[in-house]
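Problem 12. The chain below contains 264 residues. Write out its predicted structure in token notation.
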Amino acid sequence: MEFRDILWEIDVDGVARLTLNKPEKLNAISLDTVAEIEQAIAIANRDDDVRVVLITGAGRGFSSGTDLTARGGERVERPFPGRAGRTRSSMMAPAFIHACAKPVIAAVNGVCVGAGFSLALSCDIRIASAEARFSSIFVKRAIVPDNGATWFLPRLVGMEHALRMMYTGRMVGAAEAKEIGLVSEVVAPDELAARSGEVAREIARGPSVAIELTKRLAREGLHRTLEDSVELEHHYQSHTRETEDVEEGRRSFLEKREPVFRGR
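Solution.
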């Protein structure tokens, strides 16, 4: 499909790049942006050639949050037909990203606040430019956080740091974000694209079946008992042992070379 609010491309390494593309509005998010993000993630889920999704923003920021100037209804159809499409919340893009079968990386290149902050929180890995700034800015508008921020943030940085950010709406710079565990890495602004691409390609070169199942186990394991998790690990490990990549992993070890995984 044709996108307007985002750029979507899949490179030869299996990295799908989703770029929020309204730089004149600091990539503010409208209902149409949400629909396009959901459609892109649905494409990634269906395409076995997509190994990793990399999300960033065009221009000087990641996202300034909800587009308060947007008017009218959605022009883009969401990937939920019938009653599900009519009743599903319009604030579910972060939840959809969080549930993506593929690893998702956020390359945060500047301001990242409000709904855009929730979008970054929903990714598996966040790499930030030294110029990145984060805010759960909702309290400044006298509203509660949305798009899943109250669910994501305490799980990432702990309750105290999360509540302080949500109570005050203060801006958190990249260095502090790294210190509290909000991002895993901070790089110079001119190195962000290269570094995030490098991490994405490193993951994309891995055995994608095992990686996707690992993500599922880790995510769902937050809500399971230890015993249930061990049982499922055993089950999924039996499944991965039937893949071609397992045989390649064994051969490469014996031949003392790097494995070349094919995702099957």
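Discussion. The chain is about 45% helix and 15% strand. Students who got a different answer should revisit the alignment rule from Section 12.3.
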